[in-house]
Amino acid sequence: TVHLLFAHVLYGSQEELLQKSKQHVVVVVEHNNSITGLLYCYSKPGVVWKKDGPAIPVVVGINGVGKKCEGDRRAPQGIFRLSFVFGKESVKPEWLHFPYRAMLKQSECVDDADSPYYNKIVNPSEISSGENWGSSEKMRRDLYHGDNTYKFGIMVEYNPWGKKDTSTGKGAGSCIFLHIWRNGKTGTHGCTAMSEQNLIRLMEWLNSLAQPVLIQGTRNYLDNLRLKGKLHYEIPKP
To answer: CA 213, CA 223: separation in Å to the nearest integer?
Structure first.
């Protein structure tokens, strides 16, 4: 209970995240089993929200969006803080106005729900107790898999305290990022992906002072948020 309370204070409820944020990254898919969608950037420089730039095509989980658990290949639906940009470059790009974390050859994101490091990006050499997880994802995909999907990425604070799904006992999900896609038709294992050009455009737009959040889900989910007065703009029709 204390751990969950600490996580709530650190990350806030979804309503608190919305109230504090002045940058919304909105991902809309038409149906919960849709693989493709559109991303919109909204900002609130004054008292009125405005849409910044054209829509960005994205792909989401192979099994669409919705409530997530480990290994379901579904992108999470909800409101989540964006915490930092990661990448293979050792130095933070000059144009980036957001926290940056360089990925090393040994950097891994732990997806073993029984590990205390579940849903954390770690460097095993820096952990005195050694590796205590059964599975993880290599963050330098260029070195291990020969692709560029993690050249840059944005950490989505989904399940930041590494909890399990009480109904299944499985992990509630881990290692959720915004990253570079393979192509515009191939779904992910749970992340949201776009072209490299559009990801860089999004990264340039992010500002840590605006406390940006990801708001992601079906059109019906987003329309309900608007009807409840939580979103103050209408999501364009495709």
So the answer is: 17
How many angstroms separate the CA atoms of 104 and 12, rounded?
30
User: What is the tens place of the pLDDT at every residue in 28-39?
Assistant: 999 999 999 999
Check: CB of residue 56 under 8 Å from CB of residue 194: yes
Question: Encoding tokens for residue 59?
Answer: 């792909």
Does the pLDDT of residue 126 top 90, yes or no? no
Q: Residue 218 CA to chain centroid, in angstroms?
A: 16
The whole-angstrom separation of Cα 74 and Cα 62 is: 6
Other C-beta atoms closer than 10 Å to the C-beta of 214 total 24
Quick check: 9 pLDDT over 50? no
Band of the pLDDT at 12, cuts 50, 70, 90?
Answer: low
CA-based nearest residue to 119, from 101, 99, 135: 135
Q: What does the pLDDT look like over 128-150, one tens digit per residue?
A: 777 789 999 999 999 999 999 99
Q: Tens digit of pLDDT for each residue in 210-222?
A: 999 999 999 999 9
